[in-house]
Please model this.
Amino acid sequence: MTAYISKKLQVSKLSKIRIEATFYIFSLFCKVNYCIFLYSIAENEVGMPRLKLGMEKSSP
Model:
């Protein structure tokens, strides 16, 4: 019985670590997207819309 309980504890620790890692990666991804978003806004404010130029070239 004690072996079963210790095994259960190990599994719960692993799942907790996995959830924390997933959350960390997700938050990092959101931060990167937010930085790109702010950078594109800043570029448009300055008058260098690189993203728009790239889109116009791809469209026929």
In short: The mean pLDDT is 72. The chain has one domain: 2-58. The two ends are 69 Å apart (CA to CA). Helices lie at 2-46, 50-58.
